[in-house]
Amino acid sequence: MKTKQEVMVRLFFDDVFFEKYQKSHKDILSEYGLDIRGLPSPGDKGVISERRGRRLLLAKEIYRYYYPAIHDLGINSIDEFSNSKILSEFCRSTSFLSEINFIPSHDENIYGYENISKFYHFIESNEINDSNTFDIGFCQFLVGWSKHYSFPPFSYFKNGSIVAFKGRNYLITHDNTKVTLKDDLPIENLKDNVKIFSEFKIDIKNIYPLTTTR
Questions:
Q1: Interior CA angle at 160 toward 113 and 99, to 5°?
Q2: Residue burial 51-65, b: 16+ Cβ < 10 Å; e: rest
Q3: Is the pTM of this model over 0.85?
Q4: For 172, which DSSP code?
Q5: pLDDT tens across 56-110, in order?
Q6: Please, are residues 196 and 153 in contact by the beta-carbon 8 Å criterion?
Q7: Which of 117, 122, 165, 184 could form a disulfide with 102 if both were Cys (CB 3.0 to 4.6 A apart)?
């Protein structure tokens, strides 16, 4: 049996599910083994308004780290991204809806509430990442959060991160306004790379922690 919380999440974010609920909510409730109590009626204006707000907040969160890569997809603003096909596909994907496809948190205050790693999981799972710009955005997230959270994998990235791409090494440090091309940086071996992301449900091959400060 699904929970009412799951239904509400899909109503807020999944366009296909929302439209289906508007047309045949009784079928969905029957499928999920739920009754209408505690759930909105079709056409509820409050839900429609909240959908827009939540979608925009989600777009802003993701866009903050991935805007160069998103621009490469021909999307040039937060508003465009909020209404884009790729965000709609993300919102109904298991990367977004599942409770396992993101970096597990050891801090109950943020558990399940960040969508940066979820979006990276979606990009990698659907082979959309054909350049290093999504990798760089993900590293900026890892390095930035390492200043505030000392649990793995963030703790590995306290000195910075490296994106290895087509034989070149791109350095990301706590000055996240700059990405520096470096050819002589120490890279931890693949075994350590796999260990760092062992709880994350995709195979990350080209992102490494910076082993020493530079």
A1: 20
A2: beeebeebbeebbeb
A3: yes
A4: E
A5: 999 999 999 999 999 999 999 999 999 999 999 999 999 998 877 777 665 555 5
A6: yes
A7: 117
